Structures
1.
Amino acid sequence: MLVTCHLLTINIMHNFVFHNPTKILFGKGTIPAIGPETMSFGGKVLLVYGSGSIKRNGIYQQVTDSLCKSGAEIVEHQGVQSNPILSHVREGIELAKKQKCQVVCAIGGGSVIDEAKAICAGAVVDHDVWKFFTGKKSVTAPLPLTTVLTLAASGSEMNSGMVITNEETQQKFGFANKKLHPKTSVLDPQATCSVPADYTAYGAIDAIAHVLEFYFTTQDPDTPVQDRFMEGLVINAMESCDRVLADLNNYQGRADLMWTATLALNGLTAAGLGKVGFPMHLIEHSLSALYNTPHGAGLSAIIPAWMRHQSQRAPQRFARFAERVFAFRSGSPEELAGKGIAALEEWFRKINSPTSLQDLNIPKEEIPRIAENAVAQAKVWRMPDYDSERIQTILAGC
Ligand code: NZQ
Ligand code: ZN
């Protein structure tokens, strides 16, 4: 007899495939493993890193010692800037091709890891790497990537996405391809102890935004497994960030924040939610493209306005967010939604992150220009309901 499961309940778990191939080595003293992990993919290594924090905090020494001890031949591509730019990606691709690198090793935060992913994809093709970002070309067989994460924020260490700014067109576009998952990522929380308070806060906000994008854009009214997982990640991001801001060397706080940020965008939260979107990121990427705004700072300026805009359309999930994350109990769904959004905005202020365009020194006269910039990405991301008018309405609320 065929047992028919009850599909009458309102929450439906969509079919999904969850496949995250990235191996994670987590914890104190894991960095020396990067040499053997990288060498298993090849001996000629392109070492990618930023503007120098790893030389100041000793991570560069730990990584190069481990790579040299394992017999690696290192080619350096340094100077990745925060909000990485296309011209520097192209230089890295040329270097990887000329030196016939077999594997890329990224040491840094999301900017360094994202640039490294783009180099992995571009180093094995003859067309320009930007064609991946405009959807004109798809990834073939990229170089393998290993990483040592030094900032808890983007989740790039365990996902297949990357975001690059084309400085000629002033477009900051992102794309993902499952072949671009790092093979191995080393997450030693001690590596993040040198991250200053502001970027610690921006990183926690980025992790929270990754959760909220899915939490508030899923079409399903009730997804209990994912909801409680996501609510827990938001609570952990806030609580661990508070602990770290009270003591930048608090290992447990750094460890909780690091793992929370990784889980916030490694595919697990979205599994079973069906179609979800990235509307807050759609708008923030334009702020970073046009004004080089730190990603998390741009998000804290946009999130409350986007939430107020969206909650008018469907207050229920925002009311549940207020109850589950901030323990508000009384009021109509609209009142509860408003309380939850205000509480999150208050927490952004408490950790000294901007909560308006004014805080970012972006004049409101710029709103039409920002909206036009975001519409270009909305087209590539197939988000037709985000036209210029709607984006301007949201930005007017920032
Ligand atoms: O240049 P370095 O030396 O690396 O200095 C960086 C940079 O100035 C510094 N820093 C990093 N680790 C440090 C440190 N300073 C002291 N001690 C350490 N241990 O911090 C600054 C910011 O670094 P960055 O890598 O830019 O920050 P984050 O990790 O937040 O990455 C931001 C980038 O990630 C992209 C964003 O668009 C942005 O370009 N994102 C990537 C995503 C993905 N791949 O899935 C999703 C995200 O939504 C995001 O869009
Ligand atoms: Zn983000």
2.
Amino acid sequence: MVIKVAIAGPRGKMGREAVSTVIKNAEFLLVGLLDSKKQEETLGDNIPIFTSLTELIEETAPDVLVDLTVPSAVYDHTITALEYGVRPVVGTTGFSDAQLDSIRNLVEEKQIGCIIAPNFSIGAVLMMKFAQTAAKYLPNVEIIEMHHDEKIDAPSGTAIKTAQMIQNTRKEATQGHPQEEEILPGARGANFEGMRIHSVRLPGLIAHQQVLLGGDGQLLTLRHDSFNRGSFMSGVVLSIKEVMCQNKLIYGLEEIIL
Ligand code: NAP
């Protein structure tokens, strides 16, 4: 069966890569594109562009909506897609916990698959998993995530997801000196259950993360680098196929590849 795919955010850095990946894949048919503004009627192989998701769905009947847009738009897109029985594959980061809860509830009601993947790169997912295992033995953890300077949300969805996974295995620990004082606000990074997350934004970067786990006289560093956006596309392809077989919310590719 050919899977009919729509992509939101096709002019973006991730969206452009996803459009060409989906067009090249014989198992997929790209039926429509959702953009924030209509600069032209079609893109690529005459794929129609819409600025309204409901119109896109009504006119092209996609099976899957791949969202690679912005934090302010992705929640509405995901809810609308689910309401219409279209399965979301979401790469956009920046969901709040409350938004994730309401998406989970709607997925349960609709009984269709929905994949939210803070990181589509298989190597990054492995880094998160290894960090989760290591934190059982080395509970002092600092995460340094580094991204290009056009990224809007901080910390990254990958860093938050890493911290959430580590939290499942890490014994509660107070990190740093009990009387430590920030001379400049933010110097110690964001506090996630005692772990610290530091966000670097610089031109030239794509998506990089280190998880530092300190112990007596030792430091374990886990590092992953995405050097180009092609690194995310195998995860996008996997998610489009997998979401068709699921009837629940998958939050993080580790739920399907590990
Ligand atoms: P980007 O280059 O800024 O692209 C975002 C695109 O979304 C822009 O073309 C923007 O158009 C469009 N857009 C904004 N609002 C929209 C709306 N309401 N409807 C349709 N399109 C809309 O960003 P990017 O680097 O491609 O990243 C996109 C998202 O993916 C970000 O949240 C990023 O954090 C995430 N990301 C995820 C992964 C992963 O593995 N999961 C990897 C990399 C990035 P305008 O600018 O014209 O408004």
3.
Amino acid sequence: MAEIRIEQLRKEFSGFTAVQNSSFTVQDGEFFVMVGPSGCGKTTTLRMIAGLELPTSGRILLDGEDVTMRRARERDIAFVFQLFALYPHMNVRKNIGFPLLAQGMPGAEIRQRVEEVAKLLRIDHLLDRPVSGLAGGDRQRVALGRAIVRRPKCFLMDEPLGTLDTEFRDLMVHELRELHNRIRATTVYVTHDQMEAMSMADKIAVMNHGVIEQFGTPREIYDRPRTMYVADFMGSPPMNFLSFSSGLAKGDSTVAILGAKIAVPQIREDVPLAELALGVRPEHIRLDDASPIRGEILGAEYLGTTQIVSVETPGGLLKARIPADEHVTTGEQVGLALSGGHLSVFDRTSGRAIETALFEGAAHG
Ligand code: ATP
């Protein structure tokens, strides 16, 4: 088990900055997910933690010990890649046991460890089968088995489910999380898929252009995004933004927008007249004829238990998630109620949230 501490980590590739002064701590036993679009620096960060890439500056500490300049094999870290190079001529047992054989462990001990791990992954019935005939999910489990059999201090995983089809992926997301709950090994997991991040992580870092935009629990990231980028990247459909101009004072807890006075979490600084955005998640909008915020229904996407309704308002397009049985007609004028406790307020110029991050039930790490 291990704590991973990253201090001011930076990586430049011939003048291009791939990772800019990242700092975060992954607590012992935590499942930590780095999420962001392609090219934002996730893999580079992971490779530096693994010792496969040297940082331009900054430090990496493993259990308080500076390992920045140590080679990969001196770090006791298991790296699980997207494309697993299983040994096709070996059976499942030999594939899983290979790292122990390479360490020179006696045969009986290898056998015992491999069987333990195979049971944990529920592939013990496949131990004597060749890997070449296995289905994608089982191959993935063999690769995981090979990583966990060494009992490393921590796991680094780079889009390990990237090549699986959706059905297997959902299953493996669940299995990986369950496996983590059982072995509690510190894990750093990289993905571009926000749903994967939300459903697996204890803590998430949302990355953008080499910068960590926000670090926190899935709930903090989703409920209290600190930037418009995070609000937009996390959530499907993403957070809506209603544009308005206003000056606000520290401590204000209402904003005037589209003829309505809306309760918001307290504003945390004085803001001179500025272009602002009120952020609201689709599930926090209701159709309410009494509301002064009005718009025209452009269309509805039926999803079974809910529907996503697009409404054009003078402040911009809003997507509302409402019950599937609520009747709406394209072209209809509707009123929209926004639920106060869940709203965010952003400065459009900086893209930063200007309301307080504190909210009921929040745990800040
Ligand atoms: P992806 O999911 O596509 O791998 P990522 O978020 O993991 O994206 P990185 O692979 O870390 O992103 O790459 C970050 C940036 O650094 C990219 O613009 C990439 O082109 C650049 N980069 C990565 N490795 C190198 C390298 N060895 N030489 C030059 N540029 C590199």
